[in-house]
Specification:
Elements: H1 3-9, E1 16-21, H2 55-64, E2 72-73, E3 80-85, H3 93-96, H4 102-110, E4 116-119, E5 121-122, H5 128-139, E6 143-147, E7 167-173, E8 189-194, E9 198-201, E10 209-212, H6 215-232, H7 238-248, H8 270-273, H9 289-294, E11 319-320, E12 344-349, E13 352-357
Parallel strand pairs: 1-3, 1-4, 4-6, 6-7, 7-8
Antiparallel strand pairs: 2-12, 5-11, 9-10, 12-13
Helix pairs in contact: 2-6, 4-5, 6-7
Length: about 375
Amino acid sequence: MKTDEMWKVSTGEGVKVAVIDTGVNPGTPSLKGQVLAGEVPERLAYKATEDYESHGTTMAELIAGTGAGGGLKGLAPGAKIVPYRIELRGLEKSEAEKAPEVAEVIRAVADSDVKIISMSFTGNREDEETLKAIKYAHSKGKLMIAGTGNDAEKSNLIGYPAAYPYVVGVAATDESGKVAKFSEHGNYVDLAAPGLDMPGWCDKTFRSYCDQGGTSAATALTSAAAALIWSAHPDWTANQVLASLIDTAGRDWARDDPSTYLGYGLIRPRKVLENKDFDPGPANTDPLARENAIGLLDESGNPVTASPSPSPDPSKETETSDGGDQGDRASAVASDTDTSGNTTLWVVLGAAAAALVIGGGAFAVIRSRRSA
């Protein structure tokens, strides 16, 4: 990632990221001054700054943490976080009915000046109102990013909101870039990012960090990568920011033949930032237009009929995308190898650092491709 070099070009300044999660605690050392709670509409602000599981706060720090006071330093420390608390697993029943619905939150963000919507949660049922809200947010120029989920070893159910059209589905990799065993897969996987051995708050007491992992962290880092690029190119559209991430992603397969496990490849925002004349393509061309037109496919390449939600509240079936076994799924070497010395993404934790080494751009992928 070469964060020190990237931060000379961009830290994400001027970009707001909505974190739709378990809430965000603005009082951690790393997030002081980073959370714009006052920009949440009053009707949706119930306990948005009270994190009932520490999950949302960890995601916010991975995106925009400053590293102050021994906390995490995120990939885009100049960005700002707009927090939203929805009903996810872990929320007490007495509080659940007071939480806003996902569709309502997405519509509110769509009507704001937030550029990126980060959603580190998954559910296995499609909800019509959420889908309508996502289409509305897309029409308003928002970039939506979500984790694919961590249940691949058990059932590998289709993960929403990642599987909705216009949402960038993100898979998780280990330190060498190999797709994690738990990372759910399908033709809705668009990009991949590190998601194992990541530091995060252990629990809602916010006393210490623990070793964590999941497509949640991969989602946060992808959202941060988008913030870095958008900050450096504020006149670009969401389509162009996403196209630049796709075009520069590390992969050893053809650009027009994405993987069902890692999509278009491993994010490499520095490849965009180091080229001042980078061409992001047309402003109004959706880089995922083909995927959105094809729709969901099963592993045999047949169309999937989504299961409708039996409840008007899509979050009742959702869970935060953390955990999962940490391991490899297959091995291969990328052809686009960067032989320069420093290929480390540093997530700074106090005086020490948790280093996720992206070994020269090399990574692994099961050679399963999407069916067109």
